[in-house]
């Protein structure tokens, strides 16, 4: 892969676009993301603690902005190294690298449903149950299409928002720069192809991290293929037993590793601070784990409160983690550019063991906290009530041959009241995506409201 194509800033589905001299494409991309309704709704979506009353605890929007700041630092550091030491970039291209990573970080959670990862799991488990029954509209979905609903993925929903549903609907979405979309896509594979990748998805005995999940839906494969071809991403074809190509996946854009690192740094470190503020872990646990991420001297700060001290440790930990990930990118640069680097930068860094210790505490003490678990169960039931309440509407829409003007009075009211995106639906697959567009776009509190509206008949 080569930087002269990886940093392309032409816009998706906008051949007449010309970049303004003092307003580069990535700055416009950040504006389009920042002012979009899906981004704004992140202010009321769970990061870790759903429906929490403590204003100091993170939500998705704050996390996205923090990740964008860390991403800009990572991009600047790596870009400067590429320009100064390797002579691979110009000074202006250093700014492009930093800008593309920052843009990707801003958008990285834009497709996440309410109630965090438990919301994803709730959507997936509901679809599994309905597909198993196979009634009505569910019976028209092919096995390959079912895979992406059974394991609903916020990353793929994010790609759909950026390239399809927001702004220029079905005509390029936000029409972001190709480089922004490449840096955004952590998992350059569709759901069915990911399952078929087999040994081709293993690099030097390690499963390729770009296949850990899937990053776009079946009907968005042509869009990503266009982006990947323009950027020069390495493609791997998947063959069936007869040698026929059944699909393809791509190696990550190098900047996707930096976007992922910014996300990993922020959620691991900030989750610890939130957990301390929420009294899920002790001061000693928080400062010990955060202190391990930096080589800078540790002080007692007797004049500061314990919350202030945790914040100081958090700031130092972020600086230490940024330095370690930049170092990991440099050390693995050749493999990254060849598409043969199979791990995340955090895992490969000199702080990999320290981050693993943080994740272990998160699994045992933070994610299993009683209040969090209680609210996750509540959130799951909210999602189920919404989906159960709207499924009859889709079945009726199918029965009236996708003509929303022929819906019954009640379902027509529901469409108007909730502004359901069904006007352009013409088949069962698109209908289910319209359903997940709506549900995944909700804030936590709006989901509770809609569950009360459609769950009572």
Automatic annotation (TrEMBL):
Tell me the SUPFAM superfamilies matching this sequence.
HD-domain/PDEase-like
Biological source species: Komagataeibacter melomenusus
Q: What residues does the HD/PDEase domain cover?
A: 56-277
Give the top-rank taxon of the lineage listed in the UniProt record for this protein.
Answer: Bacteria
Kindly indicate where the leader peptide sits in this chain: none
Q: Which UniProt keywords apply?
A: Hydrolase
Gene3D superfamilies reported in the protein's UniProt record: eoxyguanosinetriphosphate triphosphohydrolase domain-like, Hypothetical protein af1432, putative deoxyguanosinetriphosphate triphosphohydrolase like domain
Does this entry carry the keyword Hydrolase? yes
UniProt lineage:
Bacteria, Pseudomonadati, Pseudomonadota, Alphaproteobacteria, Acetobacterales
What is the name of the protein in this document?
Answer: DNTP triphosphohydrolase
């Amino acid at each position: 892969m080569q930087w002269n194509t990886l940093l392309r800033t032409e816009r998706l589905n906008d051949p007449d676009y010309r970049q303004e001299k003092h307003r580069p494409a990535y700055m416009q991309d950040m504006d389009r993301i920042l002012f979009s309704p899906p981004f704004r709704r992140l202010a009321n979506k769970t990061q870790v603690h759903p429906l929490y009353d403590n204003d100091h605890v993170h939500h998705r929007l704050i996390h996205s902005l923090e990740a964008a700041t860390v991403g800009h630092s990572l991009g600047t550091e790596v870009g400067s190294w590429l320009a100064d030491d390797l002579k691979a970039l110009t000074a202006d291209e250093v700014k492009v690298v930093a800008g593309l990573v920052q843009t990707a970080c801003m958008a990285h959670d834009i497709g996440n449903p309410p109630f965090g990862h438990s919301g994803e799991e709730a959507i997936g488990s509901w679809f599994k149950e309905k597909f198993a029954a196979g009634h009505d509209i569910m019976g028209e979905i092919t096995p390959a299409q079912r895979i992406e609903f059974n394991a609903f993925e916020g990353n793929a929903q994010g790609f759909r928002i950026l390239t399809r549903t927001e702004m220029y609907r079905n005509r390029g979405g936000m029409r972001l720069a190709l480089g922004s979309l490449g840096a955004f896509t952590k998992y350059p594979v569709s759901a069915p192809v990911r399952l078929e990748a087999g040994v081709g998805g293993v690099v030097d005995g390690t499963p390729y991290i770009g296949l850990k999940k899937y990053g776009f839906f079946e009907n968005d494969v042509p869009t990503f293929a266009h982006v990947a071809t323009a950027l020069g991403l390495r493609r791997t074809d998947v063959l069936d037993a007869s040698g026929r190509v059944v699909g393809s996946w791509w190696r990550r854009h190098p900047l996707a590793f930096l976007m992922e690192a910014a996300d990993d740094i922020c959620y691991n470190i900030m989750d610890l601070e939130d957990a301390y503020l929420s009294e899920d872990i002790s001061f000693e646990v928080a400062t010990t784990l955060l202190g391990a991420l930096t080589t800078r001297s540790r002080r007692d700060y007797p004049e500061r409160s314990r919350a202030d001290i945790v914040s100081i440790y958090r700031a130092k930990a972020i600086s230490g983690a940024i330095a370690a990930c930049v170092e990991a990118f440099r050390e693995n640069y050749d493999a990254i550019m060849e598409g043969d680097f199979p791990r995340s930068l955090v895992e490969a860094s000199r702080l990999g063991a320290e981050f693993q210790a943080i994740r272990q505490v998160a699994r045992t003490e933070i994610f299993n906290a009683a209040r969090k678990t209680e609210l996750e169960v509540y959130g799951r039931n909210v999602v189920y009530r919404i989906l159960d309440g709207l499924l009859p509407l889709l079945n009726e829409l199918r029965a009236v041959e996708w003509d929303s003007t022929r819906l019954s009075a009640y379902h027509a009211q529901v469409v108007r009241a909730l502004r359901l995106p069904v006007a352009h639906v013409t088949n069962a697959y698109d209908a289910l995506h319209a359903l997940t567009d709506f549900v995944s776009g909700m804030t936590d509190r709006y989901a509770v409201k809609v569950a009360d509206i459609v769950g009572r008949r």
